[in-house]
Amino acid sequence: MARGILETIGLAATLVLAIPIALFGAEHLIRGELLAGALYVGIAVGLVLVEEYLTTPTDVPGKVAEETVGKVVETEASDSENGE
């Protein structure tokens, strides 16, 4: 799946927050504190999943524009193949 520059920057910002939390959780897991370690790792994974899959109100116009452009380009390409 291709990413735009803004999506890539958003993911990088989320990873800047999630990676230290995951490492902190891994430390707890290594020390034998399973509940705390699993909780911190879960929070880190949750941050990344929410950023990746949650659609916010600011994402809606971009998604609508992508779908519209995709339909227009697809229609024009099929028209030119038919010789019209």
- Helix/strand class: mainly alpha
DSSP, total strands: 0
- Poorly predicted ranges: none
Please state roughly what percent of the residues sit in beta strands, choosing from under 5%, 5-15%, 15-25%, 25-35%, 35-45% or over 45%.
under 5%
This entry's quaternary arrangement is single chain
Keywords: Membrane, Transmembrane, Transmembrane helix
Pfam families: DUF7533 (PF24377)
InterPro entries: DUF7533
Transmembrane segments: 6-26, 33-50
How would you characterize the overall build of this protein?
This protein is mainly alpha-helical. The chain has 2 domains: 1-53; 57-84. Helices cover 82% and strands 0% of the residues. The chain has 3 helices and no strands. Helix 1 (5-31) runs antiparallel to helix 2 (34-53).
Q: How would you summarize what this structure contains?
A:
Helix content is 82%, strand content 0%. It is mainly α and 84 residues long.
Task: Break the fold down into its secondary structure elements and pairings.
Blueprint: H1 5-31, H2 34-53, H3 60-81
Helix pairs in contact: 1-2
List keywords for this structure.
84 residues, mainly alpha, 2 domains, 82% helix, 0% strand, rod-shaped, DUF7533, membrane, transmembrane, transmembrane helix
